[in-house]
């Protein structure tokens, strides 16, 4: 019998391969001047876990899906938004990070002006991809699906920025768990939720009833993801993380380990993953890919 | 008989009043944390000529238009994109401008981090507004119109960033008129074009034939606008402009007066305005508001 962690790796790996290809196809469709082009490829193609696209694919694969191309566009779009946020978060006026995924951050490699503009264009490129006919064999687009995806993605992108503001406001201050979770619901949770929902709206049937379950799953896995991130910032090395470890403590950032202690944070992460899995019960076997992604996320080392 | 300049002022003024109200309605619909909220209002509500919304309204009013609400959303969206670009262009790593519309720029008033995030969220807010039901009495949205508006706006936003990159690349270099026009076609022309096109797609009939004429008008008025901007940077005072005058020469920016001399640039601007008016002949009396906007743009002092 294949071990669970092996199966998990395969689902993630298949998603990573697909998104890597689709991102390449998408980026290659743009005609960008240098050095913007190199900065955009640098920011997008360095890898990363590609969790958001994987979640989008997993939802869109829960039943036979004639609109799967729209889910593929959404997976690219949500990853482009994520990448734009990384390029901007790393800027000197924000986190001033020098290392990302084991490589120099965008502004270190290309300068602040180009990194700013790379982030800016990645956001509009996300909406261009969403409204394009990329990956579509039939050359037809269901406008109502795209409209819903645009609403979902735009709202999540705005929330992400609000979360970033709340996070900056909280630096060096004592905040409680409710405030911390409000930050993360916006900063990382909203985009994870959006990845799921943009996949869900491509499905034909029954998703109206399913949406609340999926939304609950999204909230839990989004929060679990963040708690795990906070833990890894403490227990992992810079080498494993691919970004500067211990950074949170350095800037007196509010984190779950800081708030509740490392052991309690690890328990909390485990519980949130279990709760996320429980939210998937409604879907039965259709949720197998989502389950595997949850398993992977709990066991990840970076 | 009312003088032309008086009529012009009225068309622009009516558009400015409408957009000011609609922007307020739109911004008030968002729940933003401080200091982001103040930074966003500061960037958006200080005024400006509101040329892009005015062009969008003028096109959408060319015939009886049951989808006028979609044009109003587009007018707000295009102005939010324009405002995001201003907040980011003014940043220290870009033009490092301290004054905009007679007021401190966003980063001077709120800090670089907040100005960066204000620009970021203004971009996603633009797409949120586009996909919303704002201003809609019937509470119904034609998804295919919104999809086309999203495609137009996202493409123009990306082009704007490319134009900015080309502009930065050209600083301190000698470039010819073709290269200069390529910069401006992207940097300012694309968004002006988008304002017209997002208005056009809300119209029921005949716009397919009309589109090439409108596109030509957009190219000409977009270029005319930029040439006039370059001229005003030289002949106007900082007080009249509301931003630092003489800035272009200071940073050795390629401009039309630098390329062809001030007199020739003024002639060129006049010719472009005339050509823009000629592109409107196709529309007859329906283009009266667009004609008046052109007249106003040629006579503007800031």
UniProtKB/TrEMBL annotation, chains A, B:
<dbReference type="Pfam" id="PF00348">
    <property type="entry name" value="polyprenyl_synt"/>
</dbReference>
<keyword id="KW-0414">Isoprene biosynthesis</keyword>
<keyword id="KW-0479">Metal-binding</keyword>
<dbReference type="GO" id="GO:0004337">
    <property type="term" value="F:(2E,6E)-farnesyl diphosphate synthase activity"/>
</dbReference>
<keyword id="KW-0808">Transferase</keyword>
<keyword id="KW-0460">Magnesium</keyword>
<dbReference type="InterPro" id="IPR008949">
    <property type="entry name" value="Isoprenoid_synthase_dom_sf"/>
</dbReference>
<protein>
    <submittedName>
        <fullName>Geranyltranstransferase (Farnesyldiphosphate synthase) (FPP synthase)</fullName>
        <ecNumber>2.5.1.10</ecNumber>
    </submittedName>
</protein>
<comment type="similarity">
    <text>Belongs to the FPP/GGPP synthase family.</text>
</comment>
<dbReference type="GO" id="GO:0008654">
    <property type="term" value="P:phospholipid biosynthetic process"/>
</dbReference>
<dbReference type="InterPro" id="IPR053378">
    <property type="entry name" value="Prenyl_diphosphate_synthase"/>
</dbReference>
<dbReference type="InterPro" id="IPR033749">
    <property type="entry name" value="Polyprenyl_synt_CS"/>
</dbReference>
<dbReference type="GO" id="GO:0016114">
    <property type="term" value="P:terpenoid biosynthetic process"/>
</dbReference>
<dbReference type="GO" id="GO:0005737">
    <property type="term" value="C:cytoplasm"/>
</dbReference>
<dbReference type="InterPro" id="IPR000092">
    <property type="entry name" value="Polyprenyl_synt"/>
</dbReference>
<dbReference type="GO" id="GO:0046872">
    <property type="term" value="F:metal ion binding"/>
</dbReference>
